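Lab notebook, bench 4. The sequencing result for the construct came back, and we need a structural model before the next group meeting so we can plan mutations. Quick request posted to the team channel:

Model the 3D structure of this chain.
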Amino acid sequence: MNGQDIQDILVALLTEDSVQLGERGADAEPTFEAVSTFEEAGVASDNKGLVISTGDGSVFLVTIERGG
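Done. Here's the predicted structure in token form:
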């Protein structure tokens, strides 16, 4: 799984598309297996964000920042 996959899944989830946690896509690549906040995962950051773990062992950090 790569950054583009994460972006696509987040867009689908936020726009109420049919992607669900743990769902397998057409190419049988795993989607999100676990999601936690930075605080829950012990990430040292002044920002809010999410730690996303995937079935292939990849971990992604998504930082939430307010624009403007």
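The chain has one domain: 3-64.
Will bring this to the meeting.
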